[in-house]
Amino acid sequence: MLQIDDACIAFGEDILFSDFCLQLHEEEIACISGQSGRGKSSLLNAILGFIPLRTGRIIVNNILLEKATIDQVRRQVAWIPQELSLPSEWVKEMVQLPFGLKANRSTPFSVDKLFEYFSELGLEEELYDKRVNEISGGQRQRIMIAVAAMLQKPLLIVDEPTSALDPASADKVLAFFRKQMRKGSAILAVSHAQSFAQGCNQMITL
Asked: Quick one: 90 exposed, middle or buried, by C-beta within 10 A (0-12, 13-18, 19+)?
């Protein structure tokens, strides 16, 4: 599902990392950890085609990432950044926004499916009718994890999925990811949480 060969990301003379390799298959979860500034978020951005590699290559679902295929690659990926900022006042608007994007219009939005995922992630249905500024960062992150799963992409990329969560909620997120994994998805996460990393198939340190 995701193959990275001999990747190097550098900005001028500042090399974040080099010779990085990764193979992530269907029904696997990989967790990348490491100190700040080592290039974890930059790697996620590189997979999405936002940052070019200095050397190496990235293949997503058998598509080689290059200038001509960036849109194809992005259609394979659901991405949840750590700091999520969507131009919505209400949660009900926020959760439906991704389904209006060109790449996702063939996937229907379902409130019933959303609430099913809410339950699995420890979220109350009442959040659907709240303003975005009335919910916590941890709730917002879990809501968008539910939405990302509804998009049914082959690869889910998530940055610090449990950073704002208590241990019980973090366990629910990992259990949710495992369930999505068993449906055939591959998941790549950046996380500093050891309990989360230990529940993944691969643990990688940058």
From this structure: middle
Q: What is the 3-state secondary structure (H, E, C) of 120-168?
A: HCCCCHHHHHCEHHHCCHHHHHHHHHHHHHHCCCCEEEEECCCCCCCHH
Beta strand residue intervals within 25-54, DSSP E = 29-33
Phi, then psi, of 109 in degrees rounded to 5 = -85, 135
Neighbours of 194 (CB within 10 A): 11
pLDDT tens for residues 74-88?
999 999 887 766 678
Which residue from 77, 78, 81, 76 is spatially nearest to 141, judged by alpha carbons? 81
Render pLDDT for 25-84 as a digit per residue (tens, 0 to 9).
999 999 999 888 889 999 999 999 999 999 999 999 999 999 999 999 999 999 988 776
Distance of CA 82 to the CA centre of its chain: 9
